Amino acid sequence: MTLLKVKNVFKQYGAHLVLEAADLEINEGEIVGLVGRNGCGKTTLMKLILGLASPTKGEIKTTDNVKFGFLLDCKVFEFLSGAENLKLIGSYSSVSPSLTRINELLDFVGLSNDNRKVRDYSFGMKQRLSLALALLEEPNFLILDEPFVGLDPVGTQNFIEYIRKLRSELGVTVLVSSHQLSEIEEICDYFFVIKDRKLYRYSEISQSTLRIFLADISSDVRTSLEKLAVVKQNSVLIANDDKKLSALFELISKEKLIILKITVEKNSKNIFVLCFLNHLWV
């Protein structure tokens, strides 16, 4: 079921056009990425979706059952503990959280039984508290703006696992932005890129890539191979996808190419995504 539709949206501040003819759809249960350089309009689009800003032109529609939670430049009270932050901020929400609910949230983000003031938290702990705040009203659609900024590799991996658990355990739909491709590639089903005010969808995020080493590749054969895969010297890289692999092996057989070896490259930056982004960044 489609939860969100952004149709032909423009956003302009005075003479400055930030977004142009943006189209986007997100379905229930998806984790969707939003990628772009700093200042490209990622935060603006998220504010438009949340109703914190109004589009200059176009429309944004959500289904009746959508309940948003968000981590968007989240502020916390440094002189209070994590639990006290949740209690105080929750008292201003539509549903004041119970002590049980507060403890559940702190446990979920790994901050239970920590009575320190937030000023004594690490940056990663503050980010996790911000996630707990975003979950206060039990949203089914979570919007996270650059949640990995400032986190060390361990903190980033932990935060990614929290997002995965939100979908797997609670069925939460997530829109998450970043200017780092590796994080988006690891967690998202597909992503959108903002470049020169326009939104582009790229859906082929593969969890593994095959590298096929060939004995020799002539210039004519290289041209044919490049229509199916990325050619690097005497090897080709291709997503682990049945249809594409079938077409590639058919070409290899037709051209009587000799396969030297095949390796599987997992959990690395997808070469197809990189080439796509490199094209857009030009």
What would you say this structure looks like, in words?
The chain is an alpha/beta fold and about 280 residues long. The chain has 2 domains: about 1-200, 3-Layer(aba) Sandwich (Rossmann fold), CATH 3.40.50; about 210-265, Alpha-Beta Plaits (2-Layer Sandwich), CATH 3.30.70. The protein is about 35% helix and about 30% strand. It has a 6-stranded mixed β-sheet, with helices on both faces. It has a 4-stranded antiparallel β-sheet with strand order 11-12-10-13, covered by helices on one side. The protein has a 3-stranded antiparallel β-sheet with strand order 2-1-4, covered by helices on one side. Strand 8 and strand 9 form a beta hairpin. Helix 2 (about 80-90) crosses helix 3. It is globular. The relative contact order is 0.14. Mean pLDDT is about 85; it is low at about 265-270 and about 280.
The tally of strands reads: 13
Number of helices: 9
Q: Mind telling me the CATH superfamily name of the largest domain?
A: P-loop containing nucleotide triphosphate hydrolases
The gyration radius over C-alpha positions equals: 22 Å
CATH architecture of the largest domain: 3-Layer(aba) Sandwich
Q: Which whole number gives the mean pLDDT?
A: 85
Q: What does the overall shape look like?
A: globular
How many domains make up the coordinates? 2
Helix and strand composition category: alpha/beta
Q: How would you spell out the order of helices and strands? A: EEEHEEHHHEHEHEEEHEEHEH
Largest sheet: 6 strands, mixed
Percent of residues in β-strands:
25-35%
| Strand order in the largest sheet | 5-6-7-3-8-9
CATH-derived topology of the largest domain: Rossmann fold
Intertermini distance: 36 Å
Low-confidence segments: 267-272, 278-282
Briefly, what CATH class of the largest domain?
Alpha Beta
Helix-residue proportion? 25-40%
